[in-house]
Predict the structure.
Amino acid sequence: MSAPSELAAGVIHDIGYRHYEGARLGRWHSMLAVYAHGLRTVYGMGRPARSRIVPWALFAVVCAPALVSGALTAVAPIPPIPYAHYAYVLQVAIIVFVAAQAPQVVTGDIRFRLLSLYFSRPLERSDYVWAKLAALASGVFILLAVPMAILYAAILLSHTHALSDAVNETGRFAVGLSSAAIHAALLAALAMAIAALTRVRAFAVVGIVGVYLVTTSVAAIMGGVLRGADAGVLFGLISPFSLLDGFQTWALRVDPTIPPGPGHLGWAFGLATAGVLVAAAALLQLRYRRIAS
Amino acid sequence: MTTIEVDHASRWYGNVVAVNDVTMDVGPGVTGLLGPNGAGKSTLLHMMSGFLAPSIGAVRVGGRPAWHDHELYRGVGLVPERDAVYGYLTGRQLALASARLHGLPRPEDAARRALATVDLIEAQDRRVDTYSKGMRQRAKVAAALVHEPEVLLLDEPFNGMDPRQRLHMMDLVRRMGDEGRTVLFSSHILEEVERVAEHIQVIIAGRLAASGDFREIRRLMTDRPHVFTIRSSDDRRLATALIADASTAGVEVGTDGLRVRAADFGQFTWLVPRVARDLNIGLREVRPADESLESVFSYLVAQ
Amino acid sequence: MNGVIAGITLRGMFGRRRALLLLLLPLTLIGLALALRLTGHAGEEEATVLLQRFGIATLMPLIALIAASGVLGTEIDDGSFVFLLSKPISRPVILNSKLAVAVGLNVVFAAVPVLVAGLIMVGPDGGVALGFGAGALAGSIAYGAIFVLINVLTRHAVVAGLAYALIWESLVGGFVPGARQLSVEQWALSVADWVATSPAVHAEVAVMAALGLLAVVTVGATVLAGQRLRSLSIAGEA
């Protein structure tokens, strides 16, 4: 214990603390750890059971139509939901999932002032942003890929009679996965950019859903009113799901979910998609650079 | 002259018993509700202020049950623990709103009086969210005092205050008690309670461990054996000398010193240095081993 | 109804970022109406689409959600609500005062803009503007009561309210025909249909049923909220 006669001078007590001089895992491992933790947060893992209810319930809601469609297509000549249309059809459930989980991934660190803990490690602010973004995007990708996989399995089991059928179907499935990937990236970027703006989780949720609601209704209304005109098509750019639908019609050569699709204006959708991704990522980087703690 | 009666009240949440068969009467003057964190002080206060119903038993203020009775607040002022308050109002507006909500005939006068009591007149026209924590607390006290309540309940009023603010608040609380009001405040710090309260109610793990006049309890505690650890240049000889005296109840010789149980605190503290000097033993460390609130109270609970 | 409570509540709504949102959303609606009018797409059909899809299905629930959370939810969450609860005023009265402010906000920031947008687009013709204004008014009152009740019942009121507005009103109401009978937005539409003479406005629920259900839901939610408020603890759970 302490030496009582040295009260005047300062004393450093040896309580057995050892300084670590060995090898340390670097930035990459920090990023990976943040990513893994983020992905687990999206699905409520590593937390009390209560935080698993919302993501898993919504996951079930999003998978259910795939199960039904797959079963129907196996027993009856009812065409299944096309892979690339799945996200558009289930957009409400998907956006609720994203709106509920993006704040879980991001807003908690801001509210409880944990950022200074993160940034006092060899983790750059930009690393943190990319890791969290990747985690959220991966979570949404899983949400979309699993139903597509269910449909793929159902079709493989029931409708393929030759190897060429299977190969074709696999090709279509791969295109579907690409669709899922781009959906995941854009939705995650948008949601995270909105969620990082506020410290209160509830406002982040409302913000994401509000933006979705407002942009989607405006796009639908104006698209309907200006039907046939280029302006009507362009209004589809402001709503995330119609933007993505137009983008994949142009980039992945799939059928549009709501005909007639962007037509000759497909390039605008490509540009807009890229623009939104870049803008959201930039906004996030800027936001986290400016947060004090 | 209003009394708060707690009559065999218990409150549980599922399997957790927060308040366990507590019976107490709180009368005029300042009473301190003392206990470690998680002991049930807040639960008890919430029951007294009508925000929680006892699972069994009764909690009455002025003879009437506190639960589901909004008229209770005509005679009760509550200063809650949580810091949040309507920050967008000024201090004056807060007190004035409180006065109006109480239906007072002359709300401006009442508000001004209350603000003067807590010494917030200079800052009264600034928004409450620009106040320091101590000032915010005083604003809440002012709002709780506008209607000159017979009963004043304060939940951890000294939390997070710096020494000067704390002194000011203690002074205020004592004044309220001197005016004949029934003032009850909760705390987990012995010194705070010691300085302000005339009566104490000690709550541990939901049970009432001790109550009554503060000095009585103090005396009770000194009747218990005190435990000391002593390290010296010659433990065993010291032990022999100590056990020879009646003030020592027991001695344990260990590898890192002596553990001595003293029956008579006063006699023992006189004894140790004298014995050490007479026997030429150097004392390296004399430390009371059970001075923590917890161990003191554990004696009380063990009764 | 206590004027002091209403005054405090109203004062607390402004001077925050929330006020901006309250303003931004109706301005978007009016901006759209202006844009459509100026580009010559302002017929009764277009007006109906705008006012129904944006006015009633989007603006009304969002404004009601923001208003209810601002009027009651935040205070319960951070504990400042105890100030009002520890006064000799019965809980139902406290609740009604807060509800009045919430409904007032809904009317000003949702119902009135709907009326204005309608007038911008088609003027008083066909009763479209007046109809949707009336529908939005009825819906604002009902939503006010419902969302305030949700704020009393749970601390996760915002998410719960959103889940209701999105999942029940949009998803289920869109796919399950029977559910439309129990949708506040559909009842608002029925009121609009009843007031408007234009054939463009068409509702699925009979107007008498809609009015009855609106009244029942509003009164029921208000009474229930008042009663549950009596048991609200300091921690914020009823």
In short: Chain C is about 75% helix and 0% strand.
